[in-house]
């Protein structure tokens, strides 16, 4: 066991903009204790709506991560966590779901403050997080191996076994939701976790840790280590005691995570990466129904969704009418501002760096000669707010059409035939989401078959349910989260063949 000295990190009392108050843990959560980092370092967590500091949080060192891995390794190998009746893990996950549900107002408010998303959207995220925990509770003892008939003389069966210590790295766009997408199935199948939240959005992960402790998740089973990706993330991807690594973030970092994970000890990996998803609107689409879908596609979460419908393709017969309706709808219905004000649909961009990236892409679009239908500028003097921005009549080789912007910026182009629309949609190295707007069941299903993407939404968009798997093809990554599929990403198959 490492001989390190750990000091307790005290929580801070926070009053949220809607008046709720709570104790925010500020330490690294390791072995069921909130502790200061080895070097005592903390960093400020910013409210992106006001550009003010919410509180300071400990920043893990490599030694802290190693200690977390040791604790997790012990919990996996030296306790009954992995080998007990899985129904017991289900019971704990169920208690965790109940606990989070009883605090849904608070957890949603923390999310809105830390991430900048609107309270209504944050509530939707926490609801999915709760459902994820409930699904995991139900699946814990229901996902099993199978028997295989190979004829007389043999009997064959498989068992599903936990993988072991899992490293999990998540981004800042869905801090609580993505945490449960990863932790819930891992625990259900008997694994233990060390999760690194994005440095800019650690608050709900630490609050969630306090709930894990409260409901009796054993020490070492869930560990949360905020800190920078290049040190904390790399310590996870490179450690040989970690056997499974789940990553969500950019394609660029995802590739380096795959290399590190493979070179260290050939970890099992799942990668949920970037996207540049196409949203196709056919001539027969109902414009009134389509507008909110386009908006959810690209302006939900201020466009900071990996599956955002950031390339809209409209069939020529409806193109002009749709553009005019889209402009009017955005300019009258979609308000941007304070996430705690119910009138607003779109909150703040989560951090300064992303805000600058998006504003730079808007500039690139203008320089490339794309026309602006609406938006194109920031909103207000304080906070990272950007007006919903639509570029139209774009060319396929423009950077704003090819590269992931990850913000409230969309391009619109015209297509003639179904085949041409599908070809434009598929002409991307990414393949995460995709959308189809049509009143024809036949067109919808035909196009769904032709699209190269992990998810196809028809007459809806960015519409998630914890029972439906999510993940990408091509350079959007591999593996699936949610659904029954995710449980298999957290198990090893053992085959037993018996000669009778
Ligand atoms: P990112 O840089 O890929 O970061 C994702 C996570 O990986 C963060 O926790 C980050 O830590 C960590 N990380 C960074 N470098 C690492 C390394 N060398 N080894 C291990 N972990 C490392 O993504 P981002 O900065 O959050 O966003 C940048 C772009 O990623 C966006 O513009 C978007 O294109 C894409 N993105 C995709 C998704 C998605 O859901 N698929 C979500 C968010 C972002 P830090 O705390 O230091 O950031
Ligand atoms: Mg980053």
UniProtKB/TrEMBL annotation:
Domain Aldehyde dehydrogenase, residue spans: 35-496
Claim: Methyltransferase is one of the keywords in the record: no
One Pfam assignment: Aldedh
Any GO molecular function: aldehyde dehydrogenase [NAD(P)+] activity
Coiled coil: none
Keyword Cell cycle: no
GO terms under biological process: carboxylic acid biosynthetic process
InterPro entries: Ald_DH/histidinol_DH, Ald_DH_C, Ald_DH_CS_GLU, Ald_DH_N, Aldehyde_DH_dom
Alphabetical UniProt keywords: Oxidoreductase
Catalytic residue list: 272
Family: Belongs to the aldehyde dehydrogenase family.
The protein's name in its UniProt record: Aldehyde dehydrogenase (NADP(+)) ALD6
